[in-house]
């Protein structure tokens, strides 16, 4: 019982525009909610479906088959070295699906949880970040298939594979920045609900998924790397399949773009989150 | 001496609201629709770049839901917030629970806050009862260990043991709210903010909820409670704040605030018209009712010494052999029955409209707010209740502190429900 003992909590002051000095500590205090929300999204995701988690496999597999037919058989594009074309497509598809599904997930997370946001206080950042977990789990399921495909084709990764976790983190960071930015603006202007899927559709072809980025002429490589997904996908192929190493100046540019978006996204989110309940 | 748990200083909250004047005027030629559309688009674009929220409509206006609200709440206070719809109660709760930010002023809060603005916030229809208890608990700020410890208690309180592993979308609405309230009732914050969530479930469960709320209050926790049910306010709270158009009108005892609330409000009136709502059965229908002073003028407040009348008009729709007995149920603001009065001469009445009037003498009820339930019964052919409108009327008994107020010079509140003028004698003892 708490009874009439003096409070152990410091006094919290609520005033317009006053930055919350305990913000990051609060996020840590609410980690339980983070876990529960992530668990909720996961357990609800494939309820009342017949094949369940297999959806996480079917999507990249089917896309891989289509892309291989279109880009390799019809367009006769070259693969990276001796890597089977289908495997190269799959290794690019996997990080792209992680990026795109986290982007869509985070961008819609706040409005999808409107009932929570307008009825309970918690650090709002928990909602978009917990929505990432679903995409990461889907990625892991897809990764198992990648391993199976590599065994099937007899492709064994070299020591580059140790860098894979770095590129995985990079893939997650790529989507957080724009995701947070879109999530906060989505609360105010629902237009973003329509912009993001379009943007993702566009990104599917603007990123080297169905083809190897080596077919992009050298003089455009730097510009091409402004799309951070390019470096992530190249990095995946390099780490797993022994494809040529990512274009280094491009990698730095991608990192710069990622950090810039991360800052913009966080800034926008922090600026708007106190008014989410009024705007939603 | 308990310390201050919440201090609000000149708190204000404004919203931008839009009006659609063109639509209201009914001018809807294509040309006007187009020009309005273009103008709206231009304004929305301007707002977007200026960082203002996008509002539908062709004219925007700033609306202050709360203005200059200041108060202090000490630890252990149980404060009721009352006021009409739109008075700013819910907005104030949202600010106190940090869901939205005030536009002006500041609030300082000391202690862990839990707010219940809705029953079952975050319940997911696809998840089972068991899973939702953990989900909802976490959303309300409980740790997993805390929920696990209280899990059995929660399930027991809700009475849904058999359906724990059923998705809540298959629950009846009653089971759903019972489970949701049960989770909320087992929160143990230092400051509890509750918005009208007690109006759930059947009468028996409501009673259980009220009991739980009362015990929370008696554990020394600070409770802020919004309700339209005055009986709940008086039984739960030791203080009440009356809000009107976003401002604090009165901050004092619950009975003082309730009194003021009834004085300034017509929506819980001294007279009601039922003709639109079809209260009654095939035999008899309630038309209207009112409380009036001894001169027959409708009123909301009577003086202690004055008699007053309660009357209702009803229509007998069908000829029958049943003698109809109109009866009134007088209740205190805390929900206790003071007395029931039944018309002695129950009569068989031919179809037509009738007025039943009951005169209540002065020096019967103590000062305070009262409610009257209106009923029509018949007791031949078994007991029949043709209609019963609970707490349909309300009125206040005021004590103007006249010389004959049976106070003997005491100026504080007189306890008790009745205030009879009794015959006293004081004589020298004879021995």
UniProtKB/TrEMBL annotation, chain A:
Its main location: membrane. It is a multi-pass membrane protein. Residues 51-272 form the ABC transmembrane type-2 domain. GO terms for molecular function: ABC-type transporter activity. It holds the Pfam family ABC2_membrane. One of its GO terms (cellular component) is plasma membrane. Keywords: Cell inner membrane, Cell membrane, Membrane, Transmembrane, Transmembrane helix, Transport. PANTHER family: INNER MEMBRANE TRANSPORT PERMEASE, TRANSPORT PERMEASE PROTEIN. This is Transport permease protein.
Automatic annotation (TrEMBL), chain B:
GO terms for cellular component: membrane. GO terms for molecular function: ABC-type transporter activity; ATP binding; ATP hydrolysis activity. Residues 43-270 form the ABC transporter domain. Keywords: ATP-binding, Cell membrane, Membrane, Nucleotide-binding, Transport. Signal peptide: none annotated. It holds the Pfam family ABC_tran. It comes from the Bacteria. SUPFAM superfamilies: P-loop containing nucleoside triphosphate hydrolases. Belongs to the ABC transporter superfamily. This is Lipopolysaccharide transport system ATP-binding protein. It comes from Azoarcus indigens.
């Amino acid at each position: 019982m708490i009874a009439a003992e003096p409070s152990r909590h410091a006094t919290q002051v609520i005033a317009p525009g006053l930055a919350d000095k305990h913000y990051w500590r609060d996020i840590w205090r609410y980690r339980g909610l983070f876990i529960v929300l992530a668990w909720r999204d996961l357990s609800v995701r494939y309820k009342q479906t017949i094949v369940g988690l297999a959806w996480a496999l079917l999507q990249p597999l089917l896309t891989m088959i289509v892309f291989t037919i279109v880009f390799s058989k019809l367009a006769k594009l070259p693969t990276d070295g001796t890597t089977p074309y289908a495997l190269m497509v799959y290794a690019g598809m996997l990080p792209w699906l992680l990026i795109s599904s986290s982007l869509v997930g985070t961008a819609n997370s706040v409005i999808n949880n409107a009932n929570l946001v307008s009825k309970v206080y918690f650090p709002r950042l928990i909602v978009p970040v917990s929505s990432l977990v679903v995409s990461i789990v889907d990625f892991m399921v897809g990764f198992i298939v990648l391993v199976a495909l590599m065994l099937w084709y007899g492709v064994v990764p070299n020591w580059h594979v140790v860098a894979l976790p770095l590129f995985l983190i990079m893939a997650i960071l790529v989507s957080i920045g724009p995701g947070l930015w879109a999530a906060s603006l989505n609360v105010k202007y629902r237009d973003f609900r329509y912009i993001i899927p379009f943007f993702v559709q566009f990104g599917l072809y603007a990123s080297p998924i169905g083809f190897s980025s080596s077919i992009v002429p050298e003089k455009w490589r730097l510009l091409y790397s402004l799309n951070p997904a390019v470096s992530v996908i190249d990095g995946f192929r390099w780490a797993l399949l022994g494809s040529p190493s990512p274009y280094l100046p491009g990698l730095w540019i991608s990192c710069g773009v990622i950090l810039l978006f991360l800052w913009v996204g966080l800034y926008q989110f922090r600026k708007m989150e106190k008014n989410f309940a009024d705007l939603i | 001496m308990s310390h201050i748990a919440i201090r609000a200083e000149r708190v204000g909250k404004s919203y931008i609201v839009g009006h659609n004047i063109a639509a209201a005027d009914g001018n809807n030629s294509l040309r006007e629709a187009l020009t309005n559309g273009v103008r709206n688009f231009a304004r929305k674009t301007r707002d977007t770049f200026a960082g203002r929220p996008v509002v539908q409509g062709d004219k925007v206006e700033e609306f202050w839901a709360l203005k200059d609200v200041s108060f202090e709440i000490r630890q252990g206070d149980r404060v009721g917030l009352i006021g009409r719809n739109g008075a700013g109660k819910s907005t104030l709760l949202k600010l106190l629970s940090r869901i939205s930010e005030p536009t002006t002023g500041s609030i300082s809060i000391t202690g862990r806050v839990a707010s219940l603005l809705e029953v079952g916030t975050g319940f997911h229809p696809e998840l089972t009862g068991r899973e939702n208890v953990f989900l909802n608990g976490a959303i309300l700020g409980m740790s997993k260990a805390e929920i696990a410890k209280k899990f059995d208690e929660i399930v027991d309180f809700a009475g849904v043991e058999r359906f724990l592993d059923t998705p809540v979308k298959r629950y009846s609405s009653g089971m759903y709210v019972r489970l949701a309230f049960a989770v909320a009732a087992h929160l143990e914050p230092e400051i509890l903010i509750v918005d009208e969530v007690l109006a759930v479930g059947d009468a028996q469960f409501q009673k259980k909820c009220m009991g739980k709320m009362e015990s929370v209050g008696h554990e020394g926790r600070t409770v802020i409670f919004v309700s339209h049910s005055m009986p709940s306010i008086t039984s739960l709270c030791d203080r009440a704040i009356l809000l009107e158009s976003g401002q604090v009108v009165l901050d004092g005892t619950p009975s003082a605030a309730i009194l003021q609330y009834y004085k300034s409000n017509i929506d819980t009136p001294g007279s009601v018209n039922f003709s639109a709502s079809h209260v009654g059965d095939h035999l008899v229908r309630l038309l209207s009712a009112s409380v009036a002073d001894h001169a027959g003028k409708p009123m909301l407040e009577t003086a202690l010494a004055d008699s007053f009348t309660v009357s209702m008009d009803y229509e007998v729709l069908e000829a029958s052999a049943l003698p109809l007995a109109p009866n009134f149920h007088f209740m205190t603001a805390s929900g206790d029955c003071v007395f029931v009065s039944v018309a002695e001469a129950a009569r068989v009445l031919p179809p037509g409209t009738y007025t039943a009037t009951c005169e209540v003498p002065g020096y019967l009820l103590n000062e305070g707010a009262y409610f009257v339930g209106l009923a029509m019964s018949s007791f031949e052919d078994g007991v029949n209740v043709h209609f019963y409108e609970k707490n349909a009327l309300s009125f206040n008994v005021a004590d103007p502190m006249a010389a004959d107020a049976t106070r003997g010079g005491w100026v504080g509140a007189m306890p008790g429900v009745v205030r009879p003028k009794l015959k006293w004698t004081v004589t020298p003892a004879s021995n």
